[in-house]
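Please decode residue identities from the backbone states below.
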């Protein structure tokens, strides 16, 4: 079966849900019936002018609502879409529903304004002729990924000018399962084939499983996930007047183990390293009394610069955490300016009495004085480890540290502060640092977090401190497993077969949260995943079987490599930020950014159409110069650089970019933030499945095409017979290339092709 989420081509169309673990199946399409004229495929994109004016036939999607109930891999789907004929003439259209070769679809019903339509099923050979005819006549490759599929189509029905039609589709389907993961995919990205952005999109997946649900993960969209129990979950996605940038993909797994784990792998060819993505999720505790207790210190900067709205928000943030501590948690509050004070001399057991007293203490905190960061953190760590023991703590320990300024009292050298706190943290307390506003030393906070098993976050001057802190605390409120060690091996336990794994170290697994780990592997085969850690003071270990792919002919899992590349780029920048520039790392940063089209403030020159992406030495020198900006540790620039670095290090999905539009000349727009914390949009780089393309004077260049390959490229004209032969194997990729007026240079199946624009309609 073709393993990819189908791309819903809204060719005057109607989107249809496809649910399967490794493939999105069919979609509904409304095709205008204009006789012998070219078939217009409306979408917000640049189109070459046509020599003969054709009365426009367009529509606007008003709403798309999807409800999918998945019960033990049986998906029952209902879709309602309302669209409006925005043209000046009646719209004659027929409904088409592409059907994959081995689709297991049952009980498909199509209703238009309450009237059930009949239709007939065409085999792949007959359907291919229809697909190719529409592609040729529309001069748009939108349907190419379905050229080997079957087709269900109905009779023609009219839509009067200015009228609305609501189409409802209901069907059931069996979702497949691979390596323990079930995938549900909705071809949302094809909603870009429309004359305007949809007014509203609402999608809901309701999962009901006989086994406990563990990981729920989307590499494409930020889903709102509600867990209503161990065996039930709801995943939602909503958008208003947003043009989708890609298909929505959802993975989930089930496991009876207290910790569940599943693995996805992608290997470009058998001669290269492969890439894996590991999901690990602990069980959701039904009873709060069963949860692991923790120790937590809340450390608040109350220096003079915190006066006003900052200190008010910080007090609210601390009260939010105090109100949500678990019974028997140990806690304390440390406040500091040039002097260091605390709520109580030692850690307190959380109960109603200490809760009331702590809330009153926080209400009495006022700003004034200078900033003694070293003294405050040293005092905090001594409270967590009063006897100076070097053994691991018997419960997870956390330090939530807020500051809005530079160290101005006590030790002020950032490197010495980092060394001091690292030396004192013998019990491996996790330090979570919040930098508030632009006056912080962002490199100092990053160094403290990296040296103390934690993370750093930054709050812009116009952002709410409480919102940032509460969001973070929701993640760490209930640790399930601490001191975690994750091992992936091939053939035999202990035979470690992975490298460049990120995050480098896993410290805790939290209830309601999940670990997303990526890495590389040189050897394929049957794999063993081992997760070891402490649960309620006991050493526990869990093992899971999986497989690392030998070679991936399916590019739809290329996102695994992209996520790995993003995290590796973040690690490279972090290494040079904290330890200084290194030529080997600079070269790797440029190579990764070029290959994957992942732009950073230091490699943004790759977006320049005049830049030669093959000029490795020159580009490395430019990058080296740009990296000098890492010397800026304060202000908007210091803030933006550390925030961008953290985003790369914590990436759990490839960067999403808006689809091509008329305003960008039919090019995809990529967004990044520059040194001054300003958003920059570029339209000369686009990622399509496993390809990165750069717009240059000669056309769109695949990042893997060498100068010699470019000279010897085989020329093909779009929509010619030879082009359709190539599409038979690579239709999924070709279908997503915007129809621009420049050639594409692509490496496909070991051959470089020059795809010329087709003849004007």
């Amino acid at each position: 079966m073709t393993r990819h989420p189908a791309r819903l081509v809204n060719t005057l169309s109607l989107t249809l849900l496809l649910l399967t673990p490794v493939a999105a199946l069919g979609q509904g399409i409304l095709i205008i019936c204009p006789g012998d004229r070219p078939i217009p495929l409306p979408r917000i994109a640049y189109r070459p002018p046509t020599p003969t004016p054709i009365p426009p036939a367009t529509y606007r999607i008003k709403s798309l609502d999807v409800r999918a109930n998945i019960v033990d891999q049986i998906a029952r789907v209902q879709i309602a879409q309302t669209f409006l004929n925005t043209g000046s003439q009646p719209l004659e259209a027929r409904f088409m529903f592409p059907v994959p070769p081995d689709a297991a679809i049952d009980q498909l019903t199509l209703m238009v304004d309450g009237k059930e339509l009949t239709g007939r099923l065409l085999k792949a050979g007959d359907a291919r002729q229809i697909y190719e005819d529409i592609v040729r006549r529309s001069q748009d490759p939108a349907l190419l990924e379905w050229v080997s599929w079957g087709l269900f189509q109905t009779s023609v029905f009219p839509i009067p000018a200015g009228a609305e039609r609501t189409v409802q589709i209901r069907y059931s389907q069996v979702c497949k399962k691979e390596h323990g993961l079930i995938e549900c995919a909705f071809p949302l990205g094809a909603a870009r084939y429309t004359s305007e952005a949809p007014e509203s999109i609402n999608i809901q997946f309701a999962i009901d499983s006989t086994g406990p649900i563990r990981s729920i993960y989307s590499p494409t969209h930020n889903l709102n996930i509600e867990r209503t129990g161990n065996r039930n979950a709801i995943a939602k996605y909503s958008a208003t007047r947003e043009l989708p940038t890609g298909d929505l993909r959802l993975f989930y797994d089930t496991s009876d183990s207290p910790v569940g784990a599943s693995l996805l792998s992608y290997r470009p060819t058998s001669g290269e390293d492969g890439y894996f993505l590991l999901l690990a999720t602990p069980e959701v505790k039904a009873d709060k009394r069963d949860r692991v207790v923790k120790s937590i210190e809340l450390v608040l900067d109350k220096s003079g610069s915190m006066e006003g709205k900052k200190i008010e928000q910080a007090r609210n943030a601390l009260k939010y955490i105090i109100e949500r501590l678990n019974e028997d948690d140990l806690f304390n509050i440390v406040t500091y300016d040039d002097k260091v004070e605390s709520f109580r001399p030692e850690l307190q057991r959380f109960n109603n009495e200490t809760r009331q007293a702590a809330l009153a203490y926080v209400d009495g905190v006022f700003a004034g004085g200078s900033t003694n960061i070293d003294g405050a953190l040293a005092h905090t760590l001594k409270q967590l480890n009063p006897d100076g023991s070097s053994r691991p703590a018997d419960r997870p320990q956390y330090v939530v540290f807020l500051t809005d300024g530079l160290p101005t009292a006590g030790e002020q050298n950032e490197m010495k502060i980092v060394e001091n706190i690292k030396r004192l943290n013998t019990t491996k307390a996790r330090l979570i640092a919040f930098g508030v506003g632009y006056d912080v030393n962002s490199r100092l906070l990053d160094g403290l977090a990296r040296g103390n098993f934690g993370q750093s976050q930054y709050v812009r001057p116009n952002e709410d401190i409480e919102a940032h802190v509460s969001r973070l605390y929701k993640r760490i409120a209930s640790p399930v497993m601490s001191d975690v060690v994750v091992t992936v091996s091939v053939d035999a336990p202990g035979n470690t077969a992975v490298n460049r794994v990120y995050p480098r170290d896993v410290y805790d697994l939290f209830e309601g949260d999940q670990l997303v780990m990526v890495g590389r592997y040189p050897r394929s085969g049957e794999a063993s995943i081992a997760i070891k850690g402490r649960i309620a003071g006991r050493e526990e270990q869990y093992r899971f079987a999986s497989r690392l792919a030998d070679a991936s002919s399916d590019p739809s899992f290329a996102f695994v490599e992209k996520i790995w590349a993003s995290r590796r780029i973040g690690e490279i920048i972090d290494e040079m930020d904290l330890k200084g520039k290194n030529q080997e790392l600079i070269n790797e940063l440029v190579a990764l950014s070029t290959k994957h089209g992942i732009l950073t403030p230091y490699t943004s020159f790759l977006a320049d159409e005049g830049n030669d992406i093959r000029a490795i030495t020159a580009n490395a020198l430019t990058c080296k110069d740009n990296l000098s900006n890492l010397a800026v540790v304060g202000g908007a620039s210091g803030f933006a650089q550390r925030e961008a670095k953290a985003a790369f290090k914590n990436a759990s999905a490839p960067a999403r970019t808006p689809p091509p539009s008329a305003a960008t000349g039919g090019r995809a727009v990529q967004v990044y933030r520059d040194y001054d914390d300003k958003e920059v949009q570029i339209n000369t780089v686009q990622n399509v499945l496993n390809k990165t393309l750069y717009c240059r004077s000669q056309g769109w260049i695949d990042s893997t095409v060498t100068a010699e390959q470019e000279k010897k490229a085989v020329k093909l004209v779009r929509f010619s017979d030879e082009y359709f032969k190539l599409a038979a194997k690579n239709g999924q990729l070709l279908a997503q290339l915007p129809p621009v007026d420049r050639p594409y240079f692509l490496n496909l199946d070991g051959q470089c092709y020059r795809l010329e624009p087709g003849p004007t309609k």
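Observation: Confidence is low (pLDDT under 50) at residues 1-27, 46-54.
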